[in-house]
Records
---
Amino acid sequence: MARSGPPSRPSAPELIWDGKYDGKGRRTLATLFRPPPTLSLSEQYPPNKPAGGQELWRNRLILGDNLPALQALLPEFRGQVQLIYIDPPFDVGSDFSLSLRQHGPAGGVIRGVAYRDRWGRGAHSYLHMMYERVLLLRELLAESGGLFLHCDWRSSAPLRLMLDEVFGRERFVNEIVWHYYNKYSGGKGCLPRAHDTILLYGKSEWFTVNPLRLPREAPIRQLRRQAVDGVLKNVKGPDGRVLYRVVTDRKADDVWDLPQMQPASLQWTGYGTQKHHDLLARILALASRPGDLVADLFCGSGTTLTVAQELGRRWIGCDLGLPALHVTRRRLWAPAQQEIESAPGFDVYALAEAERRAFVRDIGGHRALVRHVLKQLGTDLAPDATDADGLLGTALVRVVPGTGVWSAQQVARLARSASARGHQRLLCIAWEFQPGLWQELEAAGLAEAILPVLLPREWLAPHEPIAVPFRVLPRIRVSWQGPSASAGGGTVELLDWRAPSIGRAGTSDTSHAGGGIDDVDAWAVQTGWRSGEPFAPQVWVYRSRRHPRLATRLALAPPERGLVLIKAWDAFGREGTAVLPLPPTGGTGGTRRSARS
């Protein structure tokens, strides 16, 4: 990966961290990925239907590291974004959770990691991560645009110095204090910490804020004032007495008293660092207008994007983690289902191989990746290892080469090779598998001989690879009732869901994985899908606080071509798929078939 630059050292005092300058004293800029990363369209909500032959704007939600995502976005959007809000990690040194109420008879709460705020060299790694991204964020901004960077007491001082350097001290606009009056603080040895800081910088001298007035709790009498030769003076009546007016609002200042999001709110998602929608509404009102393009490249639970949708702004969002993507996608599904012709839909993009290639390259190549995988599994290379195989109990471990999607044919070929060497089970570990892999393996009689295992997305974060459990590709079971002449369409029923971890002996460990319909948070169906096309479902359903029960039967539109693709997600965004042939059309009775995938 090449780095752009280098500029000369600034003459003013500056903040220095490991990585800012290379070994020759040259200042590094943002990491550039080679080849340049591109975004791959993976999902559309609702399906894109150009109006009158004209393409309508589609909002964009990106799964991936925002550094390569920014590089992929710049050729199209350089200088076009009016407002960027980011709420990055705060360099806390811990993990943040996603807490969700468990459905089904057991009840309770299930918890998982939403994102990790741990950095290999502490503040040095954190600051360099932020520096690379801020450089590219500035390039994305329009000349009249502004950046809002959300932070707290841990990182506000160094981040402000960094922004002074990137934007120029003269481009500093405000340090906004968000005072959250409803947070309980049990801290000792200091005053309760009850505010965050939002640093606002303009791209250029043309950045201006919109008038922002806030309602008062009660009307007040106020002296009327007017400017006379540049000086404010009291307005007097004909009798010489000062005049008053009754005001019901006030001009907003840089201290905002707004509540922190609480679990009792109907908008609460369970995402640990979710920000209040009123905070984002105020930010968007301050520095954008309807129709403007806004971006949040650490979008987390998606509050910026949902508020932008409500306020008529176009948006681009990005996050690294599957939990964030899924929580955001669910929040955006409701407006996408309204079927308003003029309302923009949203598309989900992935960086896919760009992230994976960079990770494999940085870790030292495929052999180093295999050693890392085997270390995480708690095993070593097999004595007779070829193509970097290992053994886990009696199962053969294969970390497949490459960073693309592995098909059922490729996986089956590896399984037969393992069987020829006397191994009855194969752990096939890859970044991604084709939709409907499980049912293809069942049709080939190999479902019990193969465990398709996904490499963890957590490794693609901009910090050191960490120990996370390996999980088998989620396996769902579905059935469909074929259409009849009277019904005109069919129904798909979701029957089961499994996403077990890997046991020490190379078997799927279901002791901590749960499973079943109660683990499914959402699912969707598309008829007329073809391999290689994005997933554009006609119908999707999901749980909510108001509707915790999940519908497990969905009606199909009369099919025209292609296949039926079903996707099901658990609450942490893990995805299972099934692919069915189109139900037969015509006839007088329905046909019921089932499939596992």
---
Amino acid sequence: GLDIDTRSDIYSLGVLLYVLLAGRTPFDEQALMRAGLDEIHRTIREQDPPVPSRRVSSLTQEEQTTAAQRRGLDATRLSSELRGDLDRIVMKCLEKNRARRYETANGLAMDLWRHLKSEPVLARPDSAGYRAAKFIRRHRVPVLFGSVIALALAIGLVGTVIQARRADRAARLASEQRDFALRQLSRAEAINDLNAFLLSDAASSGKPFTASDLLTRAAHILDRDYAETKENRVEILVSIGQQFLTLEDDGRARVILAKAYELSREVVDRGLRAKAGAAYGNALAIGGEFGRGAELVREALVEIGDDPRFVHTRVFCLLRASQIAREQGEVLVALERALEAQRTLRESGDVSALRELSTSMEVAEAYRMAGRSRQAVAAFERAFAQMTALGRDDTEKAATLLNNWALTLRSLGQPADAERLFRRAVAISGGDGAGPEVSPMLLNNLAWALLELNRLDEAAELSERAYEKARSAGNEVVVGQSLNLRSFIYRERGDLARAAAMLDELEPRWKATMPENYIGFAMIASQRSAQALALGDGRTALAEAYRSIALAETSDDKGALPGLLIERAKVNLFLGDLDRAHADVEEAIAARKLGADPGAPSSALARAYLMLGRILSKQNKPDEAREAFAVALQNFEPTLGPDHPSTVEAREGAQNS
């Protein structure tokens, strides 16, 4: 809508000069054509293109070589030849504010002529060092063959030039850091603005809404090009996608993070590209695409390297790598990545309470998955104390922490304490757990605790609900865990056909997505052993029991091995091989003691002693059997309660053996 004058032509001449020098237009032509006319207008008006030397450096090696050869140079010299005066001349032509461009084409021509004659150009700020460098370039022979005094002066001038260049580099670095900080501020402001708009809009409607409702509305607004820049749009999409993952709405999370990833390929900010790639990779892994997900996170880490500006992005990527490794069953790799993220954050010196909390939670979970339960419990306690201090102990993040803490207590053989934490997490997420807000993972985990407490009907109802929710959300991890749990429950209820059907559905799912050494395959073999034993087929039961142990020994996750040994001891007891049964249960007891919290009761340890009491009774060792049953009773009563069938059996054994 403004008048047109020669400075518009200067812009066009600048574009032409850019192409002649760099072999590329200032903006990516294909991306512009795909974006449409309105986006072309907005890009030209609002975005600054990279300087020609940086544009050349961003090309592939083959493209750089081709561009350099066409300009009579080798690839290593092209970028350096453009850097400096030519960059400044071109960018003066392309200034958004036309008042800062050359006034006439002759002004541009004269600056180019000054560059060719190694004279100071008007596009570049004047300085003594700059003029000295130009002087030396124009008068190389007199300077070289001058007197000793002239040589000393030349050395002084060279020193001045070096200092000027260092100052110029420092100024450029300061400028880059300033621009980086401004971009970060712009993204934070964009997210805050969107959040404020969503909340005020929702509040004014007077209608109840859920977190999922708000996130869906935010995604819809972004489809209308709410964000001011492409970079802000990517940042907001990643934020929304991460929130959908927190809500375990994995299908919608993948769709949104896929958009963020594709859009991020069009921006030059390496940190933002890496963040979008890692977030999308994590979402793919949750959906079962582990290989592609892990590759995207590796690419993200390579892209940012050790650049200190991207330390928080590196922490983000390392935590996503840890999560993917956990889902794959590579628990030691997961722990290593989580600890690396924590070290990176602390060494950066830029540790906010919220970032420290998120990292602490991931470290605690990595300890849990690696079977280091005592370290995990201590880490969860510290993280929850941090959370409480921040006033966030009734948030969804608190529900996640409580869930994982409860899982650790369950692995230590304290299902009643675990149930209390699971119930508290459910209450935070959605009251009684019947609403859509409660994650299927949490429902499934609560069902496991109820199974151990012998509340089979409640466990079945929750696990079936978890299965349906996970399947509709596309969460393959929880679908598999739910099938595994339901097989246990149905077998305990005597429905052997349905239990077998669960395993038949589960095994091909895991074979299609999980690595060969995944501990779940050992669990399936153990379950098939229990199925065969329930049918009286001791031979098949023993073969599957041995297979389960062999599979567990190849896995990084050794936490399940004691339970598998007890199951094999049960089969050997059924077959009358008491010595082998005794050896298995002694090994299981040693492992349980190694991982247990000394002095704390454990139903897991109690099960091993209960099995030992049964074996000793068959071996006609009543005194030793009574001792074993007594130890089992001491551990069962505080963890499972006095009326649990296992507690009752242990009590009778302690009295009668």
---
Amino acid sequence: MLKNEEFIQEFIEEAGSHIEQIESHLLELAGDVTDQELINQLFRSVHSIKGTAGFFGLDNIVNLSHSMESLFGAVRSGGVYLDDLSIDALLEANDCLGIMVKDPAKSHEIDISHYTHNLDTILSEDTKKVEGDSVGTSHEPPSPQDHIQPAGGNIPTVLVEDSIRVSIGLLNDLLNLTGELVLGRNQLLRGLEGHRKHVEGLDPVLQNIDSITTQLQERVMQTRMQPLGNVFNKFPRIIRELSRQLKKEIRLEMEGTQVELDKSIIESLADPLTHLIRNAADHGIEKPGQREDTGKSREGLITIKASQEGGYVSILVADDGAGIDVNFLKNEILKKGLRTQEELSLMEEKEILGQILLPGFSTAGSVTDVSGRGVGMDVVRTNIERMGGTIEIDSQAGRGTTFKLNLPMTLAIISSLIVESGGQNFALPQVNLQEMIRVKEGDKDRSIEIINGFPVLHFRHKLLPILSLSQVLDLPEDLPQPGKEDNHRTIRILVLKMGERRFGLAVDAIRDDEEILVKPLPRHLKDLKCYSGVTILGDGKIAMILDAEGLASQGELKFPEAGSDPKKKQDIKQAATGDRTMLLFSCSGAETLGLELSLVSRVEEIKHDDIELIGEREYIEFRGRSLELIRPEEHLPISRNEYKDQRLYVIIPKVTGPPVGLLIGKIHDSVSLSWDFNRQDIKAHGIMGTTFWNSRTVLALDLPELLQKAAPEDYGAGDSDTMGSGAGRGGRY
């Protein structure tokens, strides 16, 4: 029976945090064993564990932490000097400490004699060496209070952390209740939409409910967000051990540890990333001698980099090793009977690389403790897809391999576009949406034709594969069929993105934007890969949530890849340097502004009288909700005039955070312009550069910076380094 059991959970959490810090600091100390501040921090952490464990009568934890504390004390006083073997012994002891802390009630069953013996041996042997070489200096561990005595005898300042611990169960309940509140808000707004103007005082009440619900949802979501550093911090230790085990020289670099993901995703990410790291060290990085023979440095490099792209987080795991030999891979695929020669001949290189994700596929020649255990990359793919993510592979023989994981920031509440096909409504996550296209009769730049039995769209000098949502889901058709022509209809196509891949999804109608609560699929629908979940819409009806990756797989899409075809290479070059479709417009002055069309959700025509002033902010009613307006000329170095024309326009950008609209006076055109901006002539926050259209200067808007200036409380500075087709809270695009 433990003493004071009511406080034991707090001890587990605090001690667990200290143990993580000890491991991290020990690995840092391996690079500089003279870092006195790190040694002091290590001493304080292990002393805290020892003191609290003594309060609970956990003798094994007390004894092991005391041995570690004694060694750190001797190091701090100069009596012991740590080397790699000493740090290894401390890491092993810290691991044992972690095991006991996780289950204190059984900690007395753990045999700690091996760890205490190693630590005591290091302490006694090193102390003897130092004493034999020095003038009888005492090397007794300092008093536990020594570390808090500041120079000069001043009273130390006590810092109180402005936070409290809350159980995960309580946060989960709060998240679920908030999700139900979002659904109730949607139904309330939809049901009362026609009564706003007829019931006095109803409109501001609904606006307030809408705003508060959105803010509450975002704050609750933030309580579950954790930095990726919680996962990344374990990898320096893994690389250190693998380097010795494999007799390789490996350096690890990490970026983006501050990027945040939902706690549930963070917890599920550790195993897939560990698998990729081990594979990179074992299969990717060559032996030092082999690297020197090929002109490389002896030391291999593994990089883990995280960044935010819209509502997704992208994680790259890359190595500069041998890469994947595609010809060898083909032979292995044929040997295992996973594909036929004919099937392989039709595949592009990227598709062939993707075959390593098939169940049971492994190129390891033998089973080792590092990899090649008979568990292939399909386990990684399964775990990533279970979280609603995707995985991409890029490799060059002799130069290295990169795995790119694309993961949603959260799995609970997402912004979606409601679309209709075959008389049914579906929810499409906004993070997958790049832009919306209408294909009309006689449009030379946008035409659909059938190639080898599959519809493709000629769009911006490229071929975009097209899927019919109705066809994939076995609903009434909404695309022209082979041998038939129908030039009297408008086809609505959503351009969806999955990493670097793009395809068009044809739908019958586009209904509305809506924040939805994601519910898991019922058991009998688990195997339907076209759906990632189910939700309840504002009208009370159930809608399936579409999965872009699943739709592409179900429709057996073939994505054009860059190969030896010069035309394809030229297309890629143009895309990289080059031409983007921009919406050109003017505000209240004469300047012509441009915004990349992929960042525009829609453009609404309004009357000046539709604008309502609340405090110092302007709003309009949009789809039953209040939409805040931003006047770009108030935040950019351009002319400002009064609008004389009653007819105005509102550009609604793709944002997953608080919705906003850009108030403008005139739409000029939607044109393809060079993306190679002149960034020297005009330098201002909110403008990324200039280009030309019809001999006129076009100021290209930097949307993240503009929103940061206009609404810093919602789109805070410091998050503008990522940009894509959608926006998130804090200016993330």
